[in-house]
Structures are given as structure tokens and as C-alpha cells.
Amino acid sequence: MKLATILSALAAATLVAAGKFHPIDESKVDYVPNAYIIEYNDNVRHRDAHNSFRANKVDYSVRNEFNVFNGAALTVKSGHEGEALAKIPGIKNVWRVTLHKIPKAPKSTKKATDPSVVSVHHMTGVDVLHKKHKLTGKGIKIGIIDTGIDYKHPAFAASGAKEGCFGRYGKNCRIKYGWDFVGDDYNGANTPKPDGDPMDCNGHGSHVAGIIGGNAMNIKVSPKPPQPFIGVAPEVTIGAYRVFGCYGTSADDVILAAMELAFNEGMDVINMSLGEDSSYKSNPTAVLADKLIARGMALAAAAGNQGTDGVWMVSDTGLSDLGTSVTSFDNNYGFYNSFTYGGAVYPYAPSDAWNMAIDLPANTTLVPIFEKDGSLSDGCDEDVYNGLDVQGKVVLAFGDQSRCLSGRGSIAKDAGAVAILVQTTPVGIATMGGSYDYPFATVEHGTGEEMIAAWRKNPKSRIAWSKRPSTFTVENGGSPSVFSSLGLDGELRSKPDIAAPGGNILSTYTLADGGYTVLSGTSMASPYIAGAHALYMQAKNAKPRGDEIRKVFKNTATIGSNFGSKTKASAAKQGAGMVNVLSAIMTTTSISPDHIDLLDSKHFKKSVKISIKNHGKHSQTYTLSHVPADALNSYNANNTFPLGIPVIEPDYATVSFSASKVKIPAGKTVKITLNFKEPKKGKASEFPIYSGFIIATPNSKGGVPVHVPYTGLKGDVSKVPMQDTVQGFPSLMAQQDWKVVEIPAKTVFDLTDPENAELVPVIASRLGSHTPNFTIRVFDDKKTFVGYLYSNSLGRAFGWAGRVSSTSFHGKMMFSRWTWEGQVLTDADPTLEPVTVPSGTYQVVVASQKKLTKGDYPADYEVFDLGKISIKTAPKPAEE
Ligand SMILES: *[C@@H]1O[C@H](CO)[C@@H](O)[C@H](O)[C@H]1NC(C)=O
Ligand SMILES: *[C@@H]1O[C@H](CO)[C@@H](O)[C@H](O)[C@H]1NC(C)=O
Ligand SMILES: *[C@@H]1O[C@H](CO)[C@@H](O)[C@H](O)[C@H]1NC(C)=O
Ligand SMILES: *[C@@H]1O[C@H](CO)[C@@H](O)[C@H](O)[C@H]1NC(C)=O
């Protein structure tokens, strides 16, 4: 039976009439030589097509593969022209790759200027909700806690009005609520100057607001959007709660005040980004978030953009029990500036700091920089430029972000290059930090490879920079964004929760800064989820609690794969998958809970119950299945610091169900027991995080399948190394002129005047993993405990601590410097005042509590005795 089906599919693929080549007027349209967009027949898969090309002796490389549009873009090296390619069995249509126009839209011949082609909404079902169901978020209020909003922007105008407005008393203002808690000059450190006007002078909040509720479909005034676009909920009512000045940071208390006002002004949903990478949910914003959600407000928070910093890096606001931690998928399309090199056109993304098109004379040539082994160099060491002439040229470097980020820009500049292009790794176009005074941009991974090949052919090829951006289908489109942070959380709970489009997002910007821009980040994904809440509430004419909506969104999300992978991406990366708001609204089934935390081998939850509820009007039969996902090996055998990018391995848990088919009457719930077995291959010493999805598929036609992700860690998580001992941490050192140096022999640190001490003891610590309790304990020479270290640089040494990022902005290894000026807290009580210990010899012990332990000292701690130091102090006389 199966064989016959395959044979007939092949027959259909090979016997269909020849495909069609669509010629262009080559004298009028710019095109990429030898590059073609190829659409396959409906029943032809990528693999079949490649076989067919090979059988017909086509020599080619793949520029891009698409899935909604069933086909690929190829660079053909064997001289086959369009007509010849169209005759190959299985091919439906062939086009040249042209400039400034979208190559091919899903299923039709739309142009790039048609917003439905480039919109992200085709990825989430929101296009159908807008067009067919007329859902717009009307009647729902969303609060935006951010940099304010440029409410005059025409994309926020009420229908019929030319520009937007702010306030309850204006005429139908879309930005109806809000407050400026801080004023323009606030930077996080100075005193806020609140006023009633939440105008944005930064841009971020306006971008977020546009994603939620902008409407730039029909803008007639300047500046016009590069392409029309529409937000998720274009008739939602918005509250602008401004907690940032034009630049700088914002304080916790300001944010809490904003959250509360948003709640008091009746916001149904808030979106916020703040938080640290603590991995623990015990921060004030997460705590308040849980309270607000329990009272009926929903909250979407960004998971964070530290996807190349290894596991356990999700931001903490979204870690609240009821809140939603939102991760990002890349848009299928990107609107990019581009350049031509070696006859091909390539998109590029300027660095965050450069943030503008690169405008260089067209006579610049390229210099890829290589390491001795022939691989492209990351450009993080000056030595790579020895003996190279890069004067007036553009450098191409490798984009490994684990060693240096923007540092390579200044190094290239010093070497005399006029710009640097960085090949994104592993895939896609990352945006990097860069510098304000130097053209710095990233290109797709595939672009980097092709540029090197073109350079080898002709090192004198010149780069021509395009004058206006256009639309490209992008590497990694439809897959989890490389930049989005990996879970799990500190207690091995399954976070992030859900994904939304966050890579390559065109939205509104402050009018003063051009009115529109493309940004990437989980900051772009979380407002998408906020907007999706509004559509859901409008569709249901009800306001379910945030965690209820989270469950439905997670149950019905689209499970994604990493670029080029056949297996599903880890749930620690994508959560339950990409939100599908249409399915969320249409489903008549739910699964509870919305995540299964199997924990580690020691606490392994072998048996778990889930509840499936049929909310429909008819009885329904469901089939249960298991879809495994990639396992993430987060440590190398001997590493004491997690890998920046975990090693992905196909290694799966097995699951058996108490029933694999279940009939559920209308309105009833059935419990199913799942029995898990840990994956076989993964080595406990590498602490692999494995995951997968349990799916219940209704048997009726058109029924929406629902699922729940599970996550677990093989090994004993209490054995995860805390300190990065491989790199020599923790250690007892000295600080001299801000440098960390070895302690000279026989030193007695003179701390009688700590402010002016020449040499200060410093405890260098590098936490590779967050800990529930990081402590530095000080003992006297009789081994009596005198207290917890108090440091002028970092404060009290006890309490939870997050891990450090692997490298700094400039590529230097990060660690914490606890200077010690001779003070301790005699007890682990943050309300105590530090006291100065008497002169003498002291022993310093660094102890970090291991994960998922009770915290008994020393059994549950990783303990390092750093040895003894002698200090001279001038204790203050006791106060009256
Ligand atoms: C939305 O959330 C993201 C991430 O949490 C944050 O960066 C952004 O500032 C938030 N925007 C609003 C409007 O709160
Ligand atoms: C490149 O073009 C610029 C501007 O036209 C010119 O000043 C420069 O001399 C040219 N350099 C070379 C190497 O041709
Ligand atoms: C790990 O350490 C062991 C023992 O020190 C050594 O034999 C082995 O080669 C190391 N493995 C790696 C991958 O460095
Ligand atoms: C950290 O450890 C100290 C000392 O055992 C204890 O008093 C304190 O409560 C702990 N803090 C946390 C957050 O567990």
C-alpha cells in the first residue's frame, strides 16, 4: 500500500507537463546572473527536486529553500538557462532572481509592494482573522510599559484623522491612557521628573506600539512606510506608560508604579521587557506580575536576546507562574539594504550602533580575513591583519559571538579597512552592536560562503551598495531566532512559553527618526503576543485570565524546527512553538497543564497526568502521539561553563500513554497518564536538556490538534559546576589601578583608608550557572566564622546570583570582582550594617548552593577555600 502511494506520487511528479519559464526584459530589470527561483509541483518535495536536478546534470548551489511556496532559489553553475530548468520533471515555474522585487509570493504572483506578501501575519493566522473574521482588538485595552509612544504618528490616527493623538479627552485617540513617569532626561540614576505626556524620544516604545496596534496600510503623508503594514490589533486602545528617558535605564520602583497604573486604568494586557537574567522568578516585577494576572490582567514579557550565551538565560519577568515568557521566530521575509558582489545581490543588516545604510564608493574591494587553518577569522585579534593590505577595503569576518562582538569593528578600522561585514553564525542575519563611527554590518551565513567563493574567483570584484532597501526571503525565516534566549529556568521549569515573530520586524518609529524601522528581538515578539490576546478576547467576547489564554496559545501553537533541521527545535528554545491565533480561537480542545517539567534524573517525574477537555458541542475521539525534539548538550565533557551554542543531538525520551485513543463527550474532561523514559544516548556528565511534545489530534475533519511541551534534564542537576574552574575561578587576587593581579608575596593589605588603598584584595568569581545562594564567607585564623563578605564594588555576598555572560562587548572574558575593603555582615541579613573586622589574617571561602537542593551548608554547596590573606584595618569605634 505504502509503496504504491510513493510510486504514484513519483509518477505524478514526472509525467506532468513541463514547467514554465517566465522571461523578463533583461535590458530593463536588474537581475542576478545565473540565479533562479524554482517552484516545484505540489506533490514534489525538496529531496525529490534535488534528485531530479542531479539526474539532469544541473550543477548548482541553494540560495534559499521555501516551504509555503513549494520551491527553492538556486545559483546555477552549469550554464542551464531558465527554459532548460523549466523542462526538468517536477518543476512548475522558473523565474530569474530580480532586484527590488519579491521573487515569489506564496501561491500567486504578488509584488513586494503587496503588504500581505511581507507581513508576518501569514505565519500566525492573524491575516485570516483580519480579513475573514474582521477581528481588530476593538474594545480591548493594552498597556505598553516602555519608552513612551510617538502618539502623533499617523499609523495611530483614528479612522478619518490625519494624525494620532493622546488622551482621554481628545477626539477618539487610539493612545487613550498613559503617563510619563520619568521625563526626557531620566537615565535611571537621576531623579525622575514625571509629567502627563508620554511622548517617545527613543523609538523603542513606538516600534512596540506599532506591532501591537499600528495601521500603516494607507499612509498618505510623509514619511511614508517603505511598505504598508498593519499591527496585530489595529483597533485596540493603547495605554502608554513611559518608564525610560530618551536614553539609559529605568528603576524597579518606576516600573512597578507603571504596572500598577496600567492595572488601575483598566488595561487588559500589558507588555514589558524589563528584568534580569536571574533565572529565578523571585524578583519584584515577576511577583507583582503574578498578582496582577491573578486579578485579571494578562502579561507578555520578552524571554531575552542571549541565545548565543547558552542555556538557562531566560529573563526573569516572564518566569512568573502565570505570566507568559515570549521567544522569537524569524520573519520569512526581510526588508533589507543590499549590495551586489560577484554578480549576486545580498541583503545586509547594519549594526545597532551604525543603524544606517552603508554608503561607500562602488570601487571598494573585499578582503576576507583568514586564520592560519584557512577558516574565516572572527577578527577579534589584531594579529590577523599582519601582512594584509585592507586600506580602503571592506573586510569580511566570521561572526562567532562567543569571543567578541563589536570589538572587531574597531580592530578593522585601526587596520585601515573602510567597513566590516560579519558573516552571521550559525544562520540568518544577526544584528550586532557595532560602533557609532564605523560602517559595520552583518550578512547571512550563506552570503559569507558565496562571497568567499566569488572573491577566490576574482579578488578584484567590487562591491556596489544599493541605494534603497528591498524585500528578501531570508535564511532562517520561519525558524526560532538565533538571538532568543534559551531556558530552562532556575528550577528546571519549562520556559520560555511561546514564540511570535520577532526577527526582521517592520514597524513604526518616532517621526523625528524617520517614522519607520526594522528591528529584531524578543522585544518585538512579546508585543505580538499582547496584541494576540486582544484578538482572542474580542473573538470570545470575554476576558479570560492571562494564564488561561497562555494555555490556549501554547496548546495550539505551530511547532517549529531549526533552520535546515528535520527534527523539531527544543522546547527550551521555542517553548510550545509559534503562536497561531486563528487555531487558538477555533480550537474546541484544551490540554492542562500547559507544560510538563520532568526535572533532572534525580527528581525525574516518570509518570505525569494530563487532562484533555472537549469544549465542543459534540463528543470527539482523540489520538495521542509524541513528537520528540532536539536534545541540547549544554556542557562539554570537561567544561565548567556552558557552551554558548549547545550541541544539538537527536536523542529522545520515550513516552507511553495509558490510552492512545480516547473518546471524550461534549464538555467533559479525561485524564491520561504519560509514562516517560529518559533518552538513552545523552551523557549525564553533559547535562543534556531533552524535550518534546505530546499531541492530541481530534479525529474529526478540520479539528485543531492541541499539544503540551515537556522538558527534562538527564543527569543530576546538583552536579552542574557553579564556578568556571577550568578558567581558574574562583580565585583570591589583588586589585591595583583597576587591574586584577596576583597577590605579591608576604602582602599585608593596608585598608586603613580603603578609598585610597593601593592594593585591595579581590575575589574573582565566574559563575557558569545561576545559583540559589552565592556566598563569600570570611573566617578568622582560629577558623571561626566572622561574617559574609561585604564589598564596596558589589555589596553583600549572599543571595541568588545569575551566571555571567560568556564575553563582554569587547570580547573579554566576563567575571565578577568582589573587592574586599575589610567589611563583613555578621549574619545573612540584608538589613544589617556592614562592620569592619580588626587587623589580622583571614580565610576566604566561596560557596555556591547547588541547584534543586535544600541549602544545607556545606553539603548542598560547591565550596572553595581560597586561602588566607592578611589585612590592616581601622575599625570604626562603636557608635553610641
Ligand atoms: C514589550 O516587551 C518587550 C520585551 O519584554 C520590551 O522590550 C518592550 O519594551 C515591551 N514593550 C512594551 C510596550 O512594554
Ligand atoms: C574610488 O572612488 C573614489 C570616489 O569616486 C575616489 O576618490 C577614489 O580615488 C577611488 N579609488 C580607487 C582606488 O579607484
Ligand atoms: C577531559 O579530561 C580527561 C581527564 O582529565 C581527559 O582525559 C580528556 O581528554 C578530556 N576531554 C576533553 C574533551 O578535553
Ligand atoms: C543563603 O545562605 C544563608 C546562609 O546559610 C542563609 O541565611 C540565607 O537565607 C540564604 N539565602 C537564600 C536566598 O537562600
Concise structural overview:
With 880 residues, this protein is α+β, with helices and mostly antiparallel strands.
Please tag this protein with its features:
single chain; alpha+beta; Alpha-Beta Plaits; Rossmann fold; Glucose Oxidase, domain 1; eight-stranded mixed β-sheet; 29% strand; globular
Integer-rounded radius of gyration: 29 Å
Nearest-integer average pLDDT: 86
Main sheet specs: 8 strands, mixed
Total number of strands: 47
Shape descriptor reads: globular
Ends: how far apart?
A: 94 Å
Bound molecules: 2-acetamido-2-deoxy-beta-D-glucopyranose
CATH architecture of the largest domain: 3-Layer(aba) Sandwich
Regions with little confidence, pLDDT below 50 for 5+ residues: 1-16, 99-113, 273-277
Number of helices: 14
Helix content: 10-25%
Our estimate of the beta-strand percent is: 25-35%
The CATH superfamily of the largest domain bears the name Peptidase S8/S53 domain
Enter the CATH topology name of the largest domain: Rossmann fold
User: How many discrete structural domains?
Assistant: 5
How would you classify the helix and strand content by structural class?
alpha+beta
CATH class (first level) name of the largest domain:
Alpha Beta
